[in-house]
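Hey, resending since the last one bounced:
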Amino acid sequence: MAETVAINRKARYEYSIEETFEAGIVLSGTEIKSIRDGKANLQDAYARIERNEAWLVGAHIAPWAGGNRNNHEPRRDRKLLLHRMEIDRLAGRAGAKGLTIVPLRLYITSRGRAKLELGLARGKQLHDKRRAIADRDQRREMERELAEAHRGRR
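The structure tokens again:
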């Protein structure tokens, strides 16, 4: 069972996700301890392919409270662990079709490993965002009415 540490809520609002990938992350000792404490933020993060390697850029992992002078830099670029075929596919699709690679969720696996869910995404236009907001509001209203009807029966 995976324990979710950080979710990039803005990603699903700003982008329509076409495909998802799972990637490992190269972390230092204080970074994984800080992630296990839940001190990570993916808000302004994105991924990029550079020199045939995948990198996570802009993610904030707070310095570990029990760290000393060897504590990590909070916003450093972190290498992502993907198979060569996945990197090639991501690089090809992101470059050719104008797609971008966004981190969706950071989680800890049952074996204690930090993993990142990446999404191959296309930016939404303003009218797409308005439609998403309208759909969300309509779903909320329907759930509210169902709850009220359910309460009225008891």
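The radius of gyration is 19 Å.

Sorry for the duplicate.
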